[in-house]
Design brief:
alpha/beta; Rossmann fold; Arc Repressor Mutant, subunit A; 7-stranded parallel sheet; 6-stranded parallel sheet; 34 helices; 11% strand; globular; binds adenosine-5'-diphosphate; binds zinc ion
Amino acid sequence: MYTQICPAYIQQFSQKSAHLHISTSAHLTNICTFKTMEPVQALQKYFGYSGFRHEQGAIINHVLNKKDVLALMPTGGGKSICYQLPAVMLNGLTIVISPLIALMKDQVDSLNVNGIPAAFYNSSQSSQEQIALTTKLRNNQIKLLYLAPERLFANEGKLIDFLKALPVSLIAIDEAHCISHWGHDFRPEYLALAGLKREFPDIPLIALTATADKLTKKDILEKLGLKNPAIFISSFNRANITYRVVPKKNSFNQLLAFLDDRREESGIIYCLSRKSTESLAADLKKEGFLAEAYHAGLDNALKARTQEAFLRDEIRIIVATIAFGMGINKSNVRYVVHVDMPKNIEGYYQETGRAGRDGLPSDALLLYSPGDANKLKQFAMIEDNPEQSRIMLNKLNDMVHYCQLHACRRQFLLKYFEEDFPPNCGSCDFCLTEFKKFDGTLIAQKALSAVARLKERFGYTYVIDLLRGSKNEKIREEHKQLKTYGIGADISKADWFRYLRELTALGYLQVTDDAYPVLKLTPKSDAVLKGLEKVELVEFETTEEHQPATTLPFETALFNELKNIRRDIAQHENVPPYVILSDATLQEIATYLPQSLDEMRLISGFGDIKLARYGREFLLPVKSYSAKNGLSSKIKQKVAKRERSTKTTGTTKSNRPSDTALETFNLYKAKKTVVEIAALRGLTTATIEGHLSLYIYNGTIDVNELVNDEKKQLIKDAVESYGDEKLGPLKEVLGEGVSYGDIKAVLAWMRKEGSI
Ligand code: ADP
Ligand code: ZN
């Protein structure tokens, strides 16, 4: 059905060095037709992956059937494969529109390393290079051509006329949200793409993006003129990222503590101002970190050098403003830190999304200070544009809400993007925290009486300033005379925020919905103020400072050796190391210790060409390491794991358990108890219970295995009477006989059933 690249062609191509983006095909024979192949087989052959992720399979089928597609997938979700695989399978040329030269170069390098002839056409090339490229295109020797949108219709349409004369089989538009004014990355040059359908009316078009709200989505479809498009929206959950927000105290020391055991890992640190990127990078250098600053004000050549050095793992840390990031394809970014609060959730999610594209466990850390929110408020006010200011302020408020959240952060983020997720992800700071209760009656009385004395006319910040006896001139003189002024000075601002939020969640306070929300008492407040009711508050204590850096128990020394080999090859071929093989692939090798090329083929990321090119080079050190340490191949475990995981994943889209949850699940299936699993994995029982509830939610574990019928009914009744918002009150009602784990299990089951 589809045309394949013939093996001889690949073989010849693969012998050339990858960095010669366009000159390699001079020695190529033509593409020849070759027996048909299923997409999944082609995926294994050309990219070395054993199965599709997210909606890749369905998207690819649509494209192969010549349908227009809009694909929304999170960063790192695997958008590129959606057009690269059809490009390889279809007869003819695929044109890829991509906004940044750096991004194109990266993609072209990666394709070439996999033996797929790809090229880009841009202003950085000499005219000789461009002529050579044209020849190859005419000779049908290029499968993917990357272009910047402004190139397409430049030169009085010469390029477009040239392309129209070629056998174009597919057009892909990457970062498609750039076409919309509503998106956060509007690029006027993308508007030119509206002409594509006119010029290529019969060629399927696939538009891809990681961020598109409803308006942007509509805009993309309209502006590009997609015909009866199939729209695919994947879950935006990034299961391998752990989200944490901590109150900012001494940000540099906090940062050093975080970075201390991550010296060898790559990360991005985002700051608000250009100046602070420079000073922070300098301070980090003094501490011996390989860090550089990056912001829009730097000289272009310097920016390009810094970016390149980061891609090549020569610099470990980029300290950047938001100018850095788009087009950074580096897959082994292990952490993203925000030392200042971002302006909105969209930006935050996109920035944190740059971590862990290779699927390995990664961290997102945000240092939060209410002061940052105030600073940002000033930026959000746009002169003479009250409507826009209101939108920006609302977005900022959502961000503040996220920072002060007393619930699962992942659930909040996904809800923001209109996706359902159960409230215990097992891998955000909230879900990793053990809650201890204490008698908070006095604190509650102080807070409630402050609200009462202020006649229920002020918001969080003012109430807290009053309680803490702030000298701020915003506090009115008459309020400084109140008895409540300063009675809470012993409690930090951040803690007060938490307590007030908790009192709100418990129903002792409420917040109005106005533009300037104020705190009000509720019918429940009175009993507390009169000392008739006790209030229990939560004492925060993160029991798990660190998740283990990775869930795979790989051989570290071997992993480092493999990294060195990769670095040498990458230097030789003049591409970033992750283009050769990703960290995830090297970790798999160091875990499963393949002892032959056939076993190596089972490692994710080894397509035919990569195996032929580098298999042996990586195999030799594995064999000698194994021999020296008396180890043998564990590849059978990988095959078993793959079978298990495909069984467990065909479930709810938005709720795919992470690898760490899968590990828990496997131990559970091996008849270990929650306590045993927690001990074995060095995690808390709460975390393990969180993992198991994901499997109850997606229907893999039957709730009756964990909770008997009688308890299940009791808990269900309690949830129906008291709601599912908070576990604490439910536990209190249900008493000693019912554990938190029981409650979580039943909640997950009720959610699955759709009864809450
Ligand atoms: P996006 O463009 O959506 O941010 P990429 O296309 O760069 O994501 O893919 C992210 C990473 O995931 C890449 O390293 C890619 O090779 C890998 N990947 C993509 N699809 C698969 C798959 N089906 N199986 C395993 N890895 C995959
Ligand atoms: Zn969570």
